[in-house]
Amino acid sequence: MATELGPGLTRAHGAESIGALRGPRPQIPAPVEDLLATLRRGGQAAYVVGGCLRDALLGREPADWDLTTDARPERVQALFPRSIYENRFGTVVVRHDEAQYEITAFRRDASYSDFRHPDSVEFGDSIEQDLARRDFTVNAMAWGGRPGEEAAFVDPHGGRDDLARRLLRAVGDPDERFGEDALRMARAVRLAASLEFEIEPETLAAIGRNAELARSLSGERICAELLKLLAARRPSVGLTLMADSGLLAVIAPDLARQRGLSQNKIGGEDLWDHTLRTVDATPDRQVVRLAALLHDVGKPDTLADGHFHGHEAVGARMARDFLAGLHATRVLQERVAHLVFHHMFAYESNWSDAAVRRFIRKVGPSAVHDLLALRAADNVGSGLPADSGNLPELALRIDAQLAASVVLGRGQLAVDGDDLMAELGLPQGRLLGRLLDDLTERVVAEPELNDRAILLDLARQQMSDRRLSENPNS
Ligand code: ATP
Ligand code: MG
Fold it and tell me: How far apart (Å, rounded) are the C-alpha atoms in residues 290 and 369?
């Protein structure tokens, strides 16, 4: 079996340390094997490399398969007619078997503001050089070989050992590597959460020393990592690492301020603990996870006399600003802020059906179930059963209303603005809008009023009431 191992591996680690993950070959899908074979038949060295190899060895489905080669982009294009090379970074995108693969020429260290889009690209000559510029040992392995060679692992940094120990360890000197690219610190905490790995102590200590460098990162890059972190089975793993290492204070100072703020919820736990529990209790929906992370962000600022008065409105603004700073999409900013704003609703079983409809109208039919999911998680975060506050009953009542296709907005009224203008001779404008809103509210309360003749009568009535109240002597 020693012959199957890459030369770098035996040099760096000796065959005696071969663990369970040192099987003879990783599971690589047939189309990827085809690409490797085509490159190698064409006289090129070719490897599967990075996160996809890590995931394959862990038995996780890789998000995408990346290849690296000694061939320059022009040569890769010559070997693969169905390919595109439209960036300056050495990556050719190849279509094969209904999927896309990235084949990147070996690179060497260069300065970069973004690993995928380095400031300057320098091609490298060897797989070892290419692996040395990667972030963590488990991401710095390759499988493949030069033409004619039997395919083998190239693992000069002991990635498979660290994979077996479930450890994220920087390649080389961690302070240097974080100094080159501060995003690697965010990647470390995100990968720790999504892989459920620990960060090796030296690497973790270096994050603590270099956390300030994250200030220079673009919002987009932080946002991408934060969203991946939140998609982990237990996001609290990554969030706790962020808080303990000082990254949180740099990236999300308003959340870092939740630490040490007491809450009368679970004994001995602070507001940050409550946030962590809440996030972990959410279903894996991006908008709900973000809302859980941010739902109490307004509390530190609103604390007065042991109460957090109006924290949901303050928090909604802060959540929107935070996400805007990360250049999250406008839709995501609004949806998260909306959930934060409404998260303090108090349902009672004695609500009438009309009250349930008003609630749906206020929150919006598309957001209402996310809001209930957030509230259930907030319950768990507070040490209560998920269903306290009669949430399941409210969910059923909401579904019943939605199933009955009741009127929840102007769009479903039996009259529209044109009808009111034609029948009542009203001009377009604010008054017309207000009239439509009033009618909608009436119909939300009493669905049987949604009839064209009835609504026109109601509108006429309302207009004459208005004239009377404006001009009582006429
Ligand atoms: P994911 O599961 O999210 O795809 P990944 O580790 O594969 O995680 P990618 O962004 O797909 O992340 O990057 C592919 C590989 O490129 C990594 O495994 C790593 O080898 C390398 N890499 C990515 N970003 C960096 C970086 N900032 N610094 C050094 N190497 C990086
Ligand atoms: Mg990847």
Answer: 15
Q: Is the CB of 63 under 6 A from ligand 1?
A: yes
Q: Is the CB of 177 under 6 A from ligand 1?
A: no
pTM higher than 0.85 for the full model? yes
CB atoms within 10 A of CB 144: 24
Mean pLDDT, the chain, as a whole number?
91
Ligand 1 atom 13, closest CA: 51
* The domain boundary residue, chosen from 165, 196, 214: 165
User: Would 452 be classed as within a structural domain?
Assistant: yes
Residue where a domain terminates, one of 143, 165, 187: 165
Q: How far apart are CA 141 and CA 161, in angstroms?
A: 11
Which residue CA neighbors atom 6 of ligand 1 most closely? Answer: 51
pLDDT tens, position by position, 37-84: 999 999 999 999 999 999 999 999 998 999 999 999 999 999 999 899
Strand 167-168 relative to strand 198-199: parallel, antiparallel, unpaired? parallel
Q: How many domains in the chain? A: 2
In a domain, 436, yes or no: yes
